Each structure stands twice: as structure tokens, then as C-alpha cells.
Amino acid sequence: MTVFAFRRLAMALPTLLVLVTVAFFLMRAAPGGPFDNERVMPDTIRAQIEAAYHLDEPLWRQYLIYMGNLAQGDLGPSFRYEGRTVNELIAAGLPVSLTIGGLALLLALALGTAAGVTAALRRGKATDHLVMGLSMTGISIPNFVIAPLLILAFAVYLGWLPAGGWENAGWRHLVLPVVALALPQVAYVARLLRGSLIEVLSSDYIRTAYAKGLPTRTVILRHALRPALVPVVSYLGPAAAALITGSVVMEQIFGIPGLGRHFVQGALNRDYTLVLGLVLFYGGLIIAFNFVVDLLYGVLDPRMRQRA
């Protein structure tokens, strides 16, 4: 297992290198520049600005300068947020996105696991059809449709919750974005767990456990649930990274100052360093979560440890 872990870590750096290289040249290939939307300025001033950000250098030299700074942990200055670095912008937006995404992930796991287990134990019955029907609805309807409906119901008509904003991260401002982010993930977790648990319950060792007289609760919790969670854990790797880095649409709808809004504004403003920093950060999170998922495989299924 240790050799397997080191092998996966060794693959992470080349993957990030390819990611940042592709993103760097794609951003430079896009039409326009970070200062094209500014008011008309004299050529001398434009030349000084471009020299300050090394935009007057050849493309290969800009790449080497960026990679040199990146090796020191410096993601560079933002082209559009004057006086602020990309490191500072990510550090400011991460706690917000981490709060929203982490709560959404916990809610999705709790509700999705409960729904999946319930549907599997009542396979073919009305409860199973109801849970799977709701899950399919949750998967089919995107969260940018769910979010306005939640705002309309609970903020406009009922007046129970605020429609958006981020005032001191109060719990009332968290409810709607967390629920809107979590609902599609609840549906995915429920469907994955139901299918996996049905397969596990047909295994010989589960039938043996029932034959020994163990109650259903014990069989599910101690023998069936852990191997049934393997496909769910596999799915939660990239899902967790997507939730924690913030949903672009959700943050725009609810006016949340997280990483997603920085990504959108950075792309619109051609803020090269900000977009590159967020792409690199997002890619690093995906690699990290997938690495954790690989380690959890060994905990959930001992056969994985033997293969590693």
C-alpha cells in the first residue's frame, strides 16, 4: 500500500505540469488581453504596463518566468485586482467555498446514504420507486434551475430565508446555497449506493450472516455497507473537489464571494494569472481527493490492499 501511495504521488507533479502548461498557452491563445477594456491610453503607458507584467516578453519567456515564480509558490499578481496577488484572492475566497462545499458534501452523504440504503432494502416496492424517481428528478434538473425555485419558495413567498448575500456567514445565508448544491449530489449518491448495496446483499457472505441469525441492522452496518460504499467513494473524489472549489453558477446566483466568482471574472477580464492559479488549485484538489479515494479503497475493501 505504501508503494502504491508513493507511485500515485509521483504521478501528481507531471499531471499538474501538463495542466498548467496547457492552461497557460490556451489563455494566451484566446483573443483579447487583460487591458483591452481599459480606456484608450498612450502607447508609452501601455508599454510600461505590459513591461511590468512581462507581457512584452516572448511567449516562451513569459512561460519560463511564470513557472519560475510558481516553483516558489508565487501565483503572481492579478492583472485586474490592483495591488492584490492571486494567492491573496484564493486565500480570501477559499474559506467561503470550503464552508459551502463542505456542508453540501456532508448533507449529500447523509441524505444520499439514507435514501440509497432504504431503496435497496425495499427493492421493487413503492418506497424504492419513490426514492429512485426523486433521484432521477434530482439528476435531471440542474442546480441553476433548483436554486431560483428555492429562492422563490423560501425567500420570496415564505420569507423564511434571505435570497442571497454573505453577511458574516450566518446560518440563514448558508441554507439555500448548501441545499441547492447538495440536492443533485444526494441523487447521485442514492442511486450509486442502491445499485451497489443490492449487489453486495446477494453475496454469499451476506447470506451466511443472515443464516447465523444476525439482525438486518447488524448485517447492513457491519458487513454490507462498507464494500457497498466503494463506488460512492470513487464518485465523491471529483465531486468533493467541485463542491469545495465552489459552484460558479451558485455563487453568481446567491452573490457568494467564493472561488467560483473569481474564476468567472478572471476569464471575462482575461486575468491570466488569476485563471491559471484557480485552474492549478482546482487540479491540485482533484488529484488530492482522488489520492484520498485510492487510500480509502484499501480501507473499504481489503482486496485493494493486496493488489497494491
Main beta-sheet annotation: none
Average pLDDT value?
Answer: 79
CATH class of one domain: Mainly Alpha
Shape: globular
**CATH overall fold name of one domain:** MetI-like fold
Any idea what the CATH superfamily of one domain is called?
A: MetI-like
If you had to describe this structure to a student in words, what would you say it looks like?
The chain is built from 14 helices and no strands. The protein is mostly helical. Helix 4 packs parallel to helix 13 (272-300), helix 5 (126-140) packs across helix 7 (171-201) and helix 7 (171-201) packs across helix 9. The protein is globular.
Write the layout of secondary structure elements.
Elements: H1 2-29, H2 43-52, H3 59-71, H4 86-121, H5 126-140, H6 143-157, H7 171-201, H8 204-211, H9 216-228, H10 230-244, H11 248-254, H12 259-268, H13 272-300, H14 302-307
Short description:
The protein has 308 residues and is mainly α. It has helices at residues 2-29, 43-52, 59-71, 86-121, 126-140, 143-157, 171-201, 204-211, 216-228, 230-244, 248-254, 259-268, 272-300, 302-307.
Structural descriptors:
0% strand, single chain, 308 residues, 14 helices, MetI-like fold, mainly alpha
